[in-house]
Amino acid sequence: MQSHDTVFALSSGRPPAAIAVVRVSGPQTADALAALIGRVPKARHATLATVREPASREAIDQAVVLWFPGPGSETGEDTAEFQLHGGRAVIAAVLKALASVPGCRMAEPGEFTRRAFHKGKLDLTRVEGLADLIAADTDAQRRQALSHLKGLLGDRAEGWRRRLIEAQALVEAGLDFSDEGDVPAGLLAPALAQVTVLRDEIRRALEDGGRGERLRDGFVVAIAGPPNAGKSSLLNRIVRREAAIVSPIPGTTRDVVEVHLDLRGQPVTLLDTAGLRDTDDPVEQEGVRRARERAGGADLVLWVQDAQDRTEVPPEDIRHRAWTVSTKIDLAGARGPAESRIAGRQFFTSAVTGDGIPELLAALQAEAEAQVGVGEPALVVRARHRVALEETAAALDRALAQRTGSDELVAEDLRLAARSLGRLVGRVDVEDILDVIFRDFCIGK
Ligand SMILES: Nc1nc2c(ncn2[C@@H]2O[C@H](COP(=O)(O)OP(=O)(O)OP(=O)(O)O)[C@@H](O)[C@H]2O)c(=O)[nH]1
Ligand SMILES: [Mg+2]
Questions:
Q1: pLDDT tens-digit profile of 25-34?
Q2: Residue ranges of domains in the chain, CATH in brackets
Q3: Which residues take part in binding K(+) (predicted)?
Q4: For the chain: N or C, fewer Cβ within 10 A?
């Protein structure tokens, strides 16, 4: 994976398709263009060209070709894009032709983005935003991913890091150069004041209830309840297909059946689970174990029961996150007053007529919105972000707790905090501290 290689890959989706995009990046890109189309086209202009097999000069395709000289390209290197007719044979022939150009090879997964990162075009959080944008299933996920690709977290973290390095420089200057005379006295107090503000900002960013991660992963709703209550029928009715097996035999569902919904932009993962009961059947026992586990980890549980038999209550650990859904209300005499045995909301549905399903879905969407949030995009969207920011805040707490102790320990904790932020954005340059000292205090003579 040497960066002096030139790499190429099919960047568009699965062929055959109307158009296929093949990208090339690296120092031999101009050579590759010369070999395949006989020239290097005008930079950043769409050029129609005949793509030829370099040795035989046989025409492979008519293509639109783009040339983006580095460093002003996406990867920061010389790059080119071939917009081909998206047939398998066309793509195979073009990839083979590119492989015959000296210094060119197929790209590894993610290698274009990796090159962009190494060239400083994207920090790590932007790289993650790009990955999330490609994986986004719903509008809310797309908006969050795009804001991260545009640097929502990366720029904020970089700003925090810069301010931290300034504070650190003040403390280090006091330590290392205090006998040189040109460092102002009383550096520690302003540095620690700065650190307090920073620590509070980072803590506030962390106090988001995990909504960014929840939006990325989807709001998880488990359907649980006694056997034969109509759980699988409810799931099937919601997704309008036979996703789960339904039968009059109690204990039908064993595996957890997972479906993904887009409720007006909110990603919701719905889980159908085995009916909860004591059983001697080892396979069903495993199903019940999985049902309890997934319901235990869900953001919300739909406790499903037959409207005619509402005696079972959810297990203790999920009761506070459960809504009750009473099913089969199409059957005579089923619907009665809600004599609620658990606190959450009550719904009455029929998988046969569809009654009550729109109300349930509207409530799920509202709940997902409330728990995931629709306003400002979240700063923290991955466990990695949370860990790095927690580490930073913890190191700042320690630094502040040291204020009456040793300046060296304060400096060390500030260093650790800056390193955590550096890790967050994917760069940890030690030179920065000295740079700031020299700039602000003119010590380096
Ligand atoms: N009339 C009527 N019958 C229903 C309704 N929902 C489910 N049933 C019937 O109830 C029986 C059990 O339905 P399932 O959806 O398999 O129930 P389950 O809760 O998934 O059962 P297990 O997987 O065994 O725990 C089937 O015969 C369904 O046809 C409903 O809304 N109305
Ligand atoms: Mg079932």
A1: 999 999 999 9
A2: 6-118 (3.30.1360.120), 139-208+381-441 (1.20.120.430), 217-372 (3.40.50.300)
A3: 228, 247, 249, 252
A4: C
